Task: inverse folding
């Protein structure tokens, strides 16, 4: 049996100064335990979502974490 891990890395710029250290420590543990790891970047995911929404002729309203309370993005927009 194999253990697959899927992780999402934090934004390149963040709200917390230590978020990258926390991510590195957690990822180190995951990589030591898992047989395979798939990593996604939050920045890349947001970029893909913005491009997809632009193609659908909808105004892009994807927000960064600090603006999430004012976001108009619904889960159905991302599917």
Result:
């Amino acid at each position: 049996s194999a253990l697959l891990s899927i992780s999402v890395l934090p934004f390149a710029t963040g709200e917390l100064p230590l978020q990258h250290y926390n991510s590195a420590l957690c990822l180190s543990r995951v990589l030591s335990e898992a047989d395979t790891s798939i990593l996604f970047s939050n920045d890349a995911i947001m970029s893909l979502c913005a491009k997809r929404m632009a193609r659908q002729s909808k105004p892009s309203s994807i927000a960064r974490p600090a603006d999430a309370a004012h976001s108009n993005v619904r889960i159905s927009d991302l599917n």
In short: The mean pLDDT is 77. The helical segments are 19-33, 42-55, 75-78.
